[in-house]
Amino acid sequence: MSDSLFSGGHGAELTIDLSALTANWRLLRERAGAAECAGVVKADAYGIGIEQAVPALVKAGCRTFFVAHLSEARRLRPVAPDATVYILNGFPIGSAGAYREIDAQPVLGSLEELSEWRATGEGRPFALHVDTGLNRLGLTFAEFTKFHKDGGFQGLRPSLVLSHYVSSEDPADPITTRQTTTFAEVRSALPGVDASLSNSSGFFLAEPPRYSLMRLGYALYGGNPTPGAPNPMKPVVRLEALVMQVRQAPAGDTVGYNTTWTARRDTTIATISLGYADGWFRSQSGTDAHPGGIALVHGAPCPIVGRVSMDLITLDITDLPQGVVKRGDKAVLIGDGISIDDVAKRAGTNGYEVLTDLGRRYNRIYIGG
Length: 369
What we know:
Blueprint: H1 4-7, E1 12-17, H2 18-31, E2 36-40, H3 42-46, H4 50-60, E3 64-67, H5 70-76, E4 84-87, H6 96-102, E5 105-108, H7 111-120, E6 126-129, H8 141-149, E7 158-162, H9 174-189, E8 194-196, E9 213-216, E10 237-249, E11 254-255, E12 261-262, E13 267-272, E14 294-297, E15 300-303, E16 313-316, E17 330-334, H10 340-347, H11 351-356, E18 363-367
Parallel strand pairs: 1-18, 2-3, 2-9, 3-4, 4-5, 5-6, 6-7, 7-8
Antiparallel strand pairs: 1-10, 10-13, 10-17, 11-12, 13-16, 14-15, 14-17
Helix pairs in contact: 2-4
């Protein structure tokens, strides 16, 4: 039994390896050539904690960070006082003063934002977002071309121009080539401005467009930037939960809410202290119609049976030797060969959601860094 699992008052523990995080940054830094490698730490550093991840990355040599919101930049600034900070989600009306107070740069992606920044930004630098196919935020290529032709950048100080790939994890998708070509035209129109296009998967394209800045997100946290190929990144997170009870369910009994899973044999059930309130997906429930997720108990894969509930999950441990699993043992849900991408596949989502849904109730243990 692990006493540390009880020390924080919760029955599940999330271990975050900051040494693995920084090793991933260094690996990608080596691939970047002369380009700078920025850390994308939005969504609480993909769920692992801004206040812990950012100092580790700064110590490793990272000097530029991207967040999504002003609130995230406010958390970042005290732990990285000298870093360059970009805020991705546009420029909220009337917020120029807030950017000035924390010395952060907005990523401007509309003519309205550019107009307001010209009037209120006091000539401060900003990043320019030109959309090349995602159709989410950013100037269209036509808007950018006309704005530039009409002298719209006079009196403005773009420090960086960027765009976002749609599906760089799939090298065969033709939109990647189209985006790369379009962005090259944007970059040529602003030759004195730093540029950034590649994300984590963009690093692994046959000819990655490095420019002056590459943005590291998912791969930093152990996600596989090359789906279908071995993951070159080190795992950063490990999730374990305590076995709270071992019980028997006779053949024909149901397990969990709404009688969705029926024991086809006399079944041994281990109930573990984890649920959807901790960010574990209800879609990993095992039912009579389809299998659910798995956890490792004593190294053996054990299926989730019945509904994932708010605070508890039930595992079928019948195939383990009788009596070997006891109250206080651990079940591993991420780690020991179960990756965040494996969890995502079983949950019908992606690893980004797995990471960013990691619950706040866990006992969080930081190692390394």
